[in-house]
C-alpha cells in the first residue's frame, strides 16, 4: 500500500517540474530564450563598470610574466583557479579588460544553452532559473569564476543522467569543478562519492575505479595547494569572534540569502544585502528551519541525493564560517545551484528508492510533501526571477562602481602623466584598470596597479597627509589627483587636513568632485585636482 502511494506521489512530483511542450516547439523556444539571455547579457556588460574583485584578477595576470609569477602574485587571494589561468591566456593577446567580460558571458551563455537544451524542467521553471538573480546578474554581469562552476555542474548533470554514463569524463568534469573555487571544491566531493557508488555497480573492473579515484584525489590536492593563502593574507586578518552571535547568524543566513536573494531595496547600496536578513530576522530564522526540513521530504526516497544536498550545503556553511567570508551574496548562490542539481538528479530513476522515514510515517510524509512542495519551489523561483529582473534593471541606470567614471574624469581633466594618489589601497584597482596605469598608494608607500590582498598597515590622518605631501613634493608634474573612497569613516578629517595643508602657496586645489552613485559602497569617490601654484 505504501509503495503504491509512494509511486503515485513520485509520478506527480516528476511531472511538476519535467512537463514539456510539444517537441516541435521546444527547440525554437530554447533558442529564443537563449537569444534573449545573450542579448540581455551583452547589454548588461556594456552598462557594468567592473569593481575590485573583477579587475584585481585581471591586473594580477596582466602583470605576471610567467605562471610561476602568477602563482606568487595571486597566492594571497586565497585561491588560484581555472578562471585565473583563462585570464592569463587571454592577457597574452589583449590588454583590454572588456574582453574579460566577453569571456565570462560566453561561458554563461554556453551554460544557459546546455541548461535549456538538457534540463528536465518545464518551460516556466527554466525561464525562472535562467533569468534568476544569480544567473542573470551575479554570475553573468559580474566576471568571476562562478559561471565556470555553473557550466560544469550542467555538464556533470547531463553526463550523469545519460542512459550510458562515461565515468572518466564525469570524473574529469568534477575535477574541473573542484578547481574553479573553494566552495565548488566542497560541492564536488559529495558528487564524486555518488559517482563512485554508481561506478561500483556499472564498472566490473576495480582497477579503473581505483584509477579514477586517485585521479580525483590528485585534482583535489592540486585545488587545495592552490587555495591555501599565507598567514598574512587579508582573509585571516578579521578580528570577529568565531562564536559570536553575529558571525554564526551570518553563516546560517547562507540558506535564506541563497534561495531568497531579496536585495535590501531600502538602501541605495543594496548589493550584497538581503532584505529579510536585515529587517526581518525572525523570518530569516524560520525560513532557515523550513529550508533545512523540506528537502528531507522532497528527497526522502533517494538517500544519495538527500546526502548530497545536506553534505554540500553544510560543507559550504562550515567553510564560510571557518574562513569568516559570510558577506558576499555570490557565495550564497551555491545553495541555489545545489538545489537545482538535486532536483535534476532526482529525475534519474536509477537512484535506488530507500525511504528515509520509517514505513509508519510514510503516508504523513507523502501528504505533507504534496502540500508544501509547490509553495516551496515557486516561492524560491518567483523571488529569484523578480530579484534578477530588479537588480538587472537597476544596473542599466546606476553604475555598479564609480571606478570607470573616476578614471574617465581624471583622463579628461589632467595631462597624461600626472601623478594620481588613491586611498585606501583596495579602492584603487578599478581606477587603475580604466586608466591603464600605475597609481600611488600612500597606505603602502608604493606605486602599483593591483591590490595583493596582504594585510594593510593602519595609518592615521596626519601620517596619511604627510605621505601624500611627500609624494607630491617628489614628483615633477604640475598637475596631480588625490582620490579618496567616500565611505571612509575619517573622510571629513582627511579632507580638512588636505585642504588646510595642501591648498597653500605650493599647491592649489582647482577642482573637487564627489562621485557617489555607485552600488558598491567602497568604490564611490571624492576626487581632488591640484596644480602647482
For the structure shown, list the relevant keywords.
single chain; 533 residues; alpha+beta; four-stranded mixed β-sheet; two-stranded antiparallel ribbon; 23 helices; 6 strands
The span between the termini is 93 Å
- Percentage of residues in DSSP E strands: 5-15%
**Major beta sheet, strand line-up:** 1-4-6-5
Largest sheet: 4 strands, mixed
Structural class: alpha+beta
* Run of helices and strands: HHHHHHHHHHHHHHHHHHHHEHEEHEHEE
What can you see in these coordinates?
This protein has 533 residues and is of the alpha+beta class. It contains 23 helices and six strands. The strands form two sheets. It has a four-stranded mixed sheet with strand order 1-4-6-5, with helices on both faces. Helix 1 packs parallel to helix 19 (362-397), helix 7 crosses helix 19 (362-397) and helix 9 (146-160) runs antiparallel to helix 10. The radius of gyration is 26 Å and the shape is elongated. The mean pLDDT is 86.
Topology:
Blueprint: H1 2-18, H2 23-46, H3 52-63, H4 67-74, H5 82-91, H6 98-118, H7 123-130, H8 133-138, H9 146-160, H10 167-178, H11 182-202, H12 206-226, H13 245-252, H14 254-259, H15 275-279, H16 281-298, H17 303-323, H18 329-346, H19 362-397, H20 403-413, E1 419-423, H21 429-435, E2 439-441, E3 446-448, H22 461-473, E4 479-485, H23 491-502, E5 507-515, E6 525-532
Parallel strand pairs: 1-4
Antiparallel strand pairs: 2-3, 4-6, 5-6
